[in-house]
Specification:
Blueprint: H1 2-9, H2 13-25, E1 29-36, H3 42-54, H4 63-66, E2 70-76, H5 88-96, E3 110-118, E4 131-139, H6 142-146, H7 155-167, H8 173-180, H9 190-209, H10 247-269, E5 276-281, H11 283-289, H12 291-307, H13 315-320, E6 327-332, H14 343-353, H15 355-363, E7 367-372, E8 380-386, E9 389-397, E10 404-407, H16 417-424, H17 458-466
Parallel strand pairs: 1-4, 1-5, 5-6, 6-7
Antiparallel strand pairs: 2-3, 3-4, 8-9, 9-10
Length: about 475
């Protein structure tokens, strides 16, 4: 695989050797990557995780916290001077202020270092004093992660797949009209090229808003300082002749430049250095959007895991800095939108969505787990009698109107195949009913000293991701 080849040949130089030696002999460093597709809740996850590691009263599922072996937790300057700091304080203030609000979503790479002073467990506890474990959390958009799959695709291959997806989606009507008016064999005209790229970007934005996941190239939606550059001024074109100097020839060149100058540097600088990974997924949103959106999510998740290099670190490879992701958590977020009676079913749906990809990772030696979580609980549960039948509800404040509301979104099936089979078959809608979704605002919080924000299974997620490193 191209990605595996690149990853295995990435050199981390003196910095890599230093971190490898440090992790083995002095103060261990865990690099935790946090990503997910749009609206999955990456910023909230990191903010709540850090807050709950600083104040661990709600973390009984993390053994080191439950046993009191974490003596202290404190923020420190991050090790990467050229990466923006994750703005933890501002995000926490947004979630816990008098009028709480959801923080701004991830638009670029950021990083935060949390250091934990931990007493060893077992026989070592009487022989060694506390040690410091550094947790470097790297936050990056899932849309960028999807771009790693482009490294294995030629321009022709990507165009074929992208056009096939757009062909069946009403959100692509404007793009299809722009494409039909273009002549790929004509001499390159920059205004025409820009118009096509903007039409493609508009389609990607509309597809993402409709609940679709695989919207590449990801930087078209989050361009940053590349906005308007030639590397972001191309679009897929149907197969055909590509004369020298033509629009089609130039778009193919710019696609390759995008991979070489945007995707690969991101891989080298950030992705190839990650030890543990969280992939956050708004599975409920995809189910609400319909079978095609759910199948698109399944395929996107398969592509995401294919970009990882799962496997266990050997002593020598760790020393030399050739890291591998050895634990991956797939977390279905917004579990607080369901009554707890359905949480197991949501976790089963999450597991089924990544089943094929998980088998590949497990075979390579990486541990994976699927889980239903809520990094910040925004609802409370209640049961009401409706027409003589007890109905499980969640109640919260609607984000759009500020009014209180109770929701029963529908019952997830006991067998995930009831959802995945029609999704794989290309069904237009669910046969057995619809699944509703409401957007809840964060609830006002009154935290006791020592307690972090309320959550659902964030402590269990932390135990899976970090627990073995805190023993």
């Amino acid at each position: 695989m191209v990605i595996g080849t690149i990853a295995d040949t990435v050199g981390r130089g003196i910095e890599g050797v230093t971190q490898g030696v440090s992790g083995l002999f002095f103060e261990p460093v865990i690099r935790l990557g946090v990503t997910g597709l749009s609206r999955a809740g990456k910023t909230v996850f990191i903010t709540s995780l850090v807050a709950n590691l600083l104040d661990r009263g709600r973390m009984p599922g993390l053994e080191a916290a439950r046993s009191g072996r974490i003596e202290a937790a404190f923020l420190q300057p991050q090790p990467d001077d050229t990466v923006p700091r994750f703005d933890f304080e501002s995000h926490l203030a947004a979630l816990t202020g008098p009028t709480p609000r959801w923080p701004e979503s991830t638009r670029a790479v950021s990083e935060l270092r949390l250091s934990l002073r931990v007493r060893p467990k077992g026989l070592l506890s009487g022989l060694q004093g506390p040690r410091t474990v550094h947790l470097d959390i790297v936050d990056y958009p899932g849309e960028w992660l999807l771009d790693l799959a482009l490294l294995e695709q030629s321009y022709a291959d990507w165009s074929r797949d992208a056009l096939a997806r757009a062909k069946t989606r009403p959100e692509a009507a404007g793009w299809r009209a722009a494409l039909s008016a273009a002549d790929p064999t004509a001499k390159l005209d920059e205004p025409a090229a820009t118009a096509l790229a903007r039409a493609w970007t508009g389609y990607l934005a509309a597809a993402r808003a409709a609940g679709y996941s695989d919207c590449t190239p990801g930087r078209f939606l989050l361009p940053g300082d590349l906005d308007g550059s030639p590397a972001l001024t191309f679009a897929p074109l149907p197969p055909g002749d590509t004369p020298r100097g033509s629009l089609a020839r130039e778009f193919a060149r710019r696609y390759e430049a995008y991979k070489a100058q945007v995707v690969k540097p991101f891989f080298r600088a950030h992705f190839a250095r990650i030890d543990r990974q969280v992939v956050l997924v708004d599975a409920l949103g995809a189910i609400h959007a319909g079978p095609r959106a759910l199948e698109d999510l399944r395929q996107a998740l398969a592509g995401i895991l294919g970009a990882f290099r799962p496997g266990r670190n050997a002593f020598l490879s760790a020393l030399l800095g050739q890291k591998r992701v050895d634990r991956i958590l797939f977390a279905a977020t917004k579990a607080d939108h369901l009554h707890h009676h359905q949480h197991d079913r949501l976790a089963q749906v999450m597991g089924a969505l990544v089943a094929d990809a998980r088998r590949r990772a497990d075979f390579a030696g990486a541990e994976t787990q699927a889980m239903a979580i809520a990094a910040l609980r925004a609802t409370v549960e209640e049961t009401r009698t409706v027409q003589g039948r007890e109905v499980d509800l969640v109640r919260g404040t609607l984000l759009d109107t500020g009014k209180p509301a109770a929701l029963h979104p529908g019952d997830l099936p006991a067998d995930p195949a009831v959802l995945l089979s029609p999704a794989r078959d290309g069904a237009d809608r669910w046969l057995d009913g619809e699944f509703g979704v409401m957007r809840f605002a964060p609830a006002p919080l009154s935290l006791r000293p020592g307690d972090g924000p309320p959550h659902i299974r964030l402590d269990r997620a932390a135990e899976f991701l970090l627990g073995d490193k805190l023993r």
